[in-house]
Amino acid sequence: MQNIKYEKHGFVRLITINRPDQMNSLDFDANDEIVEVWKDFAGDDTARVAVITGAGEKAFCAGADLKTYTLNFARTDGPNFRNKYTNGAGFGGVTRNLNINKPIVAAINGYAISGGFELALACDIRFASPNAKFALQDAKWGFHACDGGLIRLPQIVGLGHAMEIILSGERVDADHAYRIGLVNRIYPQSELLTQSLNYAEMLASRAPLSQQFAKEVMRAAMGMHLDEALRFESRSFRDLAMTEDLEEGVTSFKERRPAEFKGR
User: Fold this and answer.
1) Is residue 242 in some structural domain?
2) 264 belongs to a structural domain
């Protein structure tokens, strides 16, 4: 059985973590597979938007498969671990060192725990089913999140909510996640994937370069002084003025027809 399924839906790519018997946790082999899937998505000009979900109705991703991770931690010395993981792609492929400027939608169909939560945080838009549960449980076991949880969560929900989630290790349900801005929308379990794919198809109809440039600006600006960030935004806008897509967008507006963007 494939650990990771990768399906084409027009300009949209559906990525499914296919380990339902393990609550869609990732062992080292599955993590290596999903890294390659993300690289394929990033390098494919016909792939504009990704949707990631978990197989079944219980879990999006329950984090690392601790049985295999514990063994590998014990067998891997510090320098080699840092070379492959700290300096390589993080858990789930997109949590560290693999920046993808294309839109990524998470369809969170159940438990998103520890590394699975961090994978969801690395996505741009998060839709959830009512049974979704979120937690960074690390404080219960003596360590802390290491794949973006400490960095992205405060940016998404604010420092106070992030402190509550991180320092307690307690679970957050879908309703609370929606109230604090952790998830964008809640859909019934039976509709979640269809709604997520429909939304992704809408995103894929928009100008891809506009989305990619905007995502790059928003991410980079978080670490910049305001004046520097505003200049970066203006430079990005000027770069878009040189694209064929902008010309097509203006022409389609004048002609009162849908734009047909090429990503050029």
Assistant:
1) yes
2) no
